[in-house]
Design a protein that fits this description.
The protein starts with a helix and ends with a strand. An eight-stranded mixed sheet has the order 10-11-13-12-14-15-18-19, with helices on both faces. Strands 2, 4, 5, 7, 8 and 9 form a six-stranded mixed sheet that branches. It has a six-stranded antiparallel sheet with strand order 34-30-29-42-39-38, with no helix packed on it. Helix 8 packs across helix 9. The protein is an alpha+beta fold. It folds into four domains: 96 residues, Immunoglobulin-like (Sandwich); 276 residues, Alpha/Beta hydrolase fold, catalytic domain (Rossmann fold); 87 residues, Immunoglobulins (Immunoglobulin-like, Sandwich); 206 residues, Immunoglobulin-like (Sandwich), CATH 2.60.40.
Length: 710
């Protein structure tokens, strides 16, 4: 038995040595430390996946949206020893997610994260962005549905705060909840104005990054240091996401804040003047920071002035750019809140030089800055105390509206347009432009047959049968003002040749040896003279509405044909080029209306179907006299139908005369069979007026008056 046991041990050891992949070393482990579970990661954000492991090879990183049933690759062959991987969250919808890190050589050695939420791009809802290694602060965004992708807009950064003191963990989460609630309450104004909102959750305690003073700039804990740079990261991150989604958003922002938020709204443009379009500064702790190095020979160091700006910030103050940043400074007339947000040495200096009360001090400082060439506007709100009232925010937003950049309208490009002779082509255009300005449209010279509608943003073109080739039209969009801003869209329309239909179709009922028949006559297509006509097709139906034609040969029986013709257009026959008439002797039903069309054919090209008109199939008796019915409709535009009766075969002439007695169109001048006939006169090329239709046949003459009204 011992021999068997030892033999088993030897075989097992050999098996493990030969097949180590079937039994991995027990010491190899992978555990994921971040995400830990419960986080919210938003589309477009970058998060660092972290793990711990004792393997020395490479790892693969995947994520799952169905609890681990299927895995989607993030990265493959990442060195395990890096212990982290930065991942940009994809647009995979709002779903619960799990991340797995596994041994590249043995996927059974793996670690999984706790579940967390992946959040998609959301419109018209307040979105919470959880702080991460890329951006250390929580922040909130709001993209209203009123912001359209083809209209230029801006991000507004609101410097909201709350008086919550204490450590950075518990109090910071309380502050976050407060700001999410406040943002939801204030989103209506942003929505009405069509802006996009960012509210950074900047910690508020004894070292307040919101103030961007020396204490926060010099803080050893990065959580409190340089809030302005963290806000820039938020702005650039949201810009990145918005532009991926197709929004037209300016690089520059609007800023607005009150009290401590007002301090932030004034100091941020001093630090980053090239990124600010305009700012609204409310209260600002009762005083303003001076964008100057001296006042009456007194050095003004940060945060009361900019004398030591480069030393504190690390780069030179761009004073000339800052002078052009519009500031809207506001405060309530009953606002007595002062002193709390500034150090005593700053307060003493500012009060002694600019006034004891908050509104007096801020007004005097604003006027002083304006006199020094800075773009400052001051407004006091009567009857309001220390409150960020709706009227104040509305005033700031109205100020922003007046300082939007006038941007040129920009056409969305369109491809080369393909049209056919005789067929209408409509081209639709649109522009991206600033919503605050009225845009007008005009065109250059239009080709014959083209029309333009600025109201419907449409260029329509129905080329004639002699307009094959390439045509160009310029559409100009203009915003008035000084200077006017415009863009031009160059529209290229290629018109392909299409064979022309037969002309001057007419028809009449006749008697033949086999009974009733319909006699159709036409003038050949003008393209016959160029050898571009192979044959003509004849169509028939008991319905006046054209459908996709059905060849008569497909009808299995006369009864089927009768049923088909009640609703469908039937191809009944074809005749060779040079033929100018067709007699239809195979009418399956008597005493009903039939409709006929004739089409020109050449190789793979075909004209439109030209109507020959309507006729009653029952011709019991031939007409007993020459007669011309009143044309219908009359008055007309542009075509009318002329019906006439011939009691016998003979040469006829049917012509149109104007009121001066001049012949303007010969409709028929030929030998015709006895019967009832009709012809359509299209007067689209003739001016409005009174015309006369005159029939001459075998010594008979009759005249009918017609009125063309365009």
């Amino acid at each position: 038995m011992n021999k068997c046991f030892f033999l088993f041990v030897i075989i097992l050891a050999a098996f493990l040595l030969i097949s180590p992949e079937l039994c991995p070393a027990q010491s190899e482990t992978i555990s994921i430390s971040y995400p830990a579970g419960g986080e919210t990661w938003t589309y477009g954000e970058k998060h660092t996946i972290r793990w711990e492991t004792d393997i020395t090879g490479d790892v693969d990183i995947d994520y799952s949206l169905d609890g681990g049933s299927t895995w989607i690759g993030i990265a493959s062959g990442t060195p395990a020893g890096t212990l982290e991987y930065q991942w940009e969250v994809p647009d995979a919808g709002s779903q619960v997610c799990t991340i797995r890190v596994s041994n590249n050589g043995d996927p059974r050695v793996s670690g999984k994260s706790g579940t967390f939420t992946m959040q998609e791009f959301i419109v018209d809802e307040v979105v919470f962005h959880e702080r991460n290694e890329e951006i250390e602060y929580h922040w909130v965004s709001f993209v209203p549905e009123t912001v359209k992708k083809n209209k230029h807009t801006y991000i507004i950064v609101e410097g909201l705060t709350a008086d919550i003191n204490g450590g950075p963990v518990t109090s910071y989460e309380d502050l976050t909840a407060n700001i999410i609630k406040t943002t939801g309450n204030k989103s209506a104004l942003v929505k009405n104005q069509g802006y996009i909102l960012i509210v950074p959750v900047i910690p508020s305690n004894r070292i307040s990054p919101l103030y961007m003073d020396n204490d926060s700039f010099n803080a050893t804990d990065s959580f409190y240091r340089r809030a302005d740079l963290k806000v820039l990261q938020m702005i650039d991150k949201l810009l990145y996401i918005l532009r991926k989604e197709g929004y037209d958003v300016d690089d520059k922002i609007f800023l607005e804040g009150f009290s401590a938020g007002g301090i932030f709204a004034q100091r941020f443009p001093i630090l980053h003047p090239t990124r600010v379009q305009a700012t609204g500064v409310g209260h600002a702790g009762g005083f303003l920071m001076h964008p100057e190095s001296f006042y009456n020979s007194v050095e003004l160091n940060w945060p009361i002035g900019t004398n030591d700006f480069e030393e504190v910030v690390g780069y030179e103050f761009d004073r000339e750019t800052y002078k052009n940043v519009p500031h809207y400074v506001f405060i309530g007339s009953e606002d007595t809140d002062v002193d709390g947000l500034w150090k005593p040495e700053y307060i003493d200096f500012l009060k002694s030089n600019f006034g004891l009360t908050a509104h007096e001090n801020i007004e005097n400082q604003s006027n002083y800055f304006k006199a020094q060439g800075y773009n400052y506007t001051f407004e006091i709100y009567p009857g309001l105390g220390h409150t960020h009232h709706f009227y104040m925010r509305q005033g700031a937003y109205e100020f922003f509206e007046t300082h939007r950049v006038r941007t040129s309208p920009t056409f969305f490009p369109i491809d080369v347009q393909i049209a056919k002779e005789g067929k209408k082509k409509s081209v639709y255009f649109r522009t991206s432009y600033n919503t605050n300005y009225t845009i007008s449209y005009s065109t250059g010279e239009l080709p014959e047959g083209a029309s333009f509608s600025a109201e419907n943003f449409t260029l329509s073109f129905q080329p004639g049968y002699d307009q094959a080739g390439t045509h160009y039209v310029d559409i100009i969009a203009t915003i008035s003002g000084e200077p006017p801003l415009s863009d031009t869209l160059h529209v290229e329309i290629v018109v392909n040749n299409i064979i022309r239909p037969p002309e001057n179709l007419s028809m009449g009922g006749i008697r033949t040896d086999s009974g009733n028949a319909v006699h159709i006559q036409w003038d050949g297509s003008p393209d016959e003279e160029y050898g571009d006509v192979d044959f003509y097709r004849i169509y028939r139906s008991r319905s006046a509405t054209l459908t996709d034609p059905i060849p008569i040969a497909e009808s299995p029986s006369p009864d089927s044909l009768i049923a088909w013709e009640e609703h469908y257009t039937i191809l009944i026959d074809s005749v060779a080029a040079g033929t100018v008439e067709y007699i239809d002797e195979n009418l399956p039903v008597d005493n009903v209306s039939y409709y006929y069309w004739v089409q020109t054919m050449f190789a793979d090209d075909a004209s439109g179907l030209e109507p020959a008109g309507e006729i009653i199939s029952d011709v019991d008796e031939l007409p007993i006299e020459f007669y011309v019915n009143n044309p219908f409709p009359n008055p007309f535009n542009p075509a009318t139908t002329i019906e006439y009766s011939l009691p016998q075969d003979g040469q006829i002439n049917l012509s149109i005369y104007n009121i001066s007695g001049q012949s303007v169109s010969v409709l028929k001048d030929e030998l015709q069979h006895a019967g009832n006939h009709s012809i359509i006169w299209n007067a689209s090329e003739f001016p409005s007026g009174i015309y006369f239709c005159i029939l001459k046949a075998n010594g008979f003459t009759q005249t009918r008056k017609m009125v063309l009204v365009k």
